[in-house]
Every structure is written in C-alpha cells, then in structure tokens.
C-alpha cells in the first residue's frame, strides 16, 4: 500500500462541501505538490491527514492505518509520524536555535540529553545551520529561520512531511535553498512529502507529481513534464499565473447590484 492514500474522500463543513470524492496516493520517496486557488481545500486536505477533522465519506490512510478510525491515543501516536512545516510555524522566540530543535525530542522522547544533543546537531547539519546553534531566532534571516523550523520538523524522523506554503515570504535564493532542502531531506530520510504551494516554478523543479485542486475536486494531475506540456486550462492558468481563467477570482456571491441594494 502507498504511504499515504486518499480513497474517495468527501468532506463538508455543515452544508459547505469542501472536498468531493478526492483520491490521491503518495508512495515512499515521493514529493508531491498540491496546488489550487484560495479556498480550494488544500489546508482541509492537510487537516484530514493530521486527523484534526474526519472525512464524512471515503478514507485517509497513513502508513497502513485508517486515520478516521483512530481514537485519541491512536491519533497521538500517529501524529508522531508526521513532520509539519507551516508558513507561520514560527520558532519559539525565547529559545535558542538548539533548544528549538531539541524541543520535540525533549517533549516526545525520554532520550538522555547527550543523545538529544547529537540528534540536534545532526538535524542542524542537515539544514546547514550547525554553526547557528547558539543564536536566537531574532538573529536569523527569514530563510535561516525557515531552515531551523525544518530541522525542528524532522527532529523525530517523520514518515511523512507536510509543508503548507513553505516558500512564502522568502527571497529567491532562500526559496531555492528551501526547495532543494525539501527534496534532499525527503530522499535522505526516505519519507514522503506533500507540499501545498502557489510557487509553481519552485515546485516543478523539486516534485515528482502535482495534483491541482479546484472547488474541492482534483481537476488535473501529472508529473512536472506532463504539467509543463499540458494544455489543460487550469494547469495553464497556474503555470502562467494568470488571474483570469477557469479559476474564479471572486468567491460566488449574490449579484453585486443586489448586495449594494441597487
Ligand atoms: N473551520 C471551518 N469552518 C467552516 N468553514 C471552513 C473552516 N475552515 C475552512 N473553511 C472553508 O473551507 C474552504 C476551504 O478552505 P481551505 O483552508 O482548505 O482552503 P485552501 O485551499 O487552503 O485556501 P488558501 O490557499 O486560501 O489557504 C474555504 O471556503 C473556507 O472558508
């Protein structure tokens, strides 16, 4: 079985259907991008993986377990397999770089401090920041802070990495560095990675496969080469970053004149 699998998943908040019959799969070693306009259901998809919400129909499988059927302690154990790097997953400002990375190890394991020390330095080495161990978060550039957050996210050797907009707010060089790191860490750790992102160029350079979501439905998918060659209108709109196209800029609403009482 694949490391992560969505089987015909539908999810709604009340009457508001967010995901409809979504099926996708990610195997060990793969880096997969999920792209879609604002409100298309990308974060909802990540929350289903984290078990914060449950699908009303279909099932989500992580490493052979059906997430929707887990109880509290099952979920707690399962989440240890997940590494998460979120756009606003800020560092603890009052802790040094070292202590930020050590935090999940101290919280979640009973390892002796000497071993934690070695693990922290290994993770910092992996993101090229062993030399920044004693620095405080406010002394780091945005790109460095993101890399420390990445070291913290991999501290417990996750099976699956989830990235929510990992490139947002970074300058082009930091962006390329973080992209390369996502790929390298995935390959070195033997994980699977899901990257929710708007950054098409950066993603095409590092991912194996892309799913395009629109209004909760996967409207297109493919490898970077297939995507580049695709004439599919959604794919085209994303690649060319056009504001007009099949993805609406406006969320459906009552007619404008009626709203203004005209
Ligand atoms: N807790 C909630 N209760 C009700 N509706 C919600 C809730 N969270 C999200 N939604 C709705 O679900 C839809 C999908 O949201 P989601 O956050 O998954 O989109 P997204 O693709 O991640 O968007 P963005 O790129 O803007 O972050 C939106 O229309 C949003 O208003």
UniProtKB/TrEMBL annotation:
Signal peptide: none annotated. GO terms for molecular function: ATP binding. Keywords: ATP-binding, Cell membrane, Membrane, Nucleotide-binding, Transport. InterPro entries: AAA+_ATPase (IPR003593), ABC_transporter-like_ATP-bd (IPR003439), ABC_transporter-like_CS (IPR017871), P-loop_NTPase (IPR027417). Residues 4-240 form the ABC transporter domain. This is ABC transporter ATP-binding protein. It comes from Deefgea tanakiae.
């Amino acid at each position: 079985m694949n490391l992560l699998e969505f089987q015909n998943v539908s999810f709604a908040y009340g009457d508001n259907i967010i995901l409809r019959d979504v099926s996708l799969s990610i195997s060990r070693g793969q880096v997969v991008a999920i792209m879609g306009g604002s409100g298309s259901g990308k974060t909802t998809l990540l929350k289903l993986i984290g078990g914060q919400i449950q699908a009303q129909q279909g099932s989500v499988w992580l490493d052979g377990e059906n997430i929707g059927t887990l109880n509290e302690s099952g979920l707690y154990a399962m989440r240890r397999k997940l590494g998460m790097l979120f756009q606003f997953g800020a560092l603890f400002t009052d802790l040094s770089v070292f202590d930020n990375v050590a935090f999940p190890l101290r919280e979640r394991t009973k390892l002796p401090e000497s071993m934690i020390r070695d693990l922290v330095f290994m993770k910092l080495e992996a993101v090229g920041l062993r030399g920044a161990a004693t620095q405080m978060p406010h002394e780091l550039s945005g790109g460095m802070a993101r890399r420390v957050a990445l070291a913290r996210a991999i501290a417990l050797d996750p099976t699956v990495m989830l990235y929510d907009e990992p490139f947002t707010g970074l300058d082009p060089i930091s962006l390329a560095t973080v992209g390369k790191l996502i790929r390298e860490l995935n390959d070195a750790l033997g994980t699977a990675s899901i990257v929710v992102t708007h950054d098409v160029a950066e993603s095409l350079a590092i991912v194996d496969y892309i799913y395009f979501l629109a209004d909760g439905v996967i409207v297109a998918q493919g490898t970077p080469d297939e995507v580049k060659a695709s004439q599919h209108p959604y794919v085209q709109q994303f690649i060319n970053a056009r504001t007009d196209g099949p993805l609406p800029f406006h969320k459906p609403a009552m007619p404008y004149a009626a709203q203004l009482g005209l």
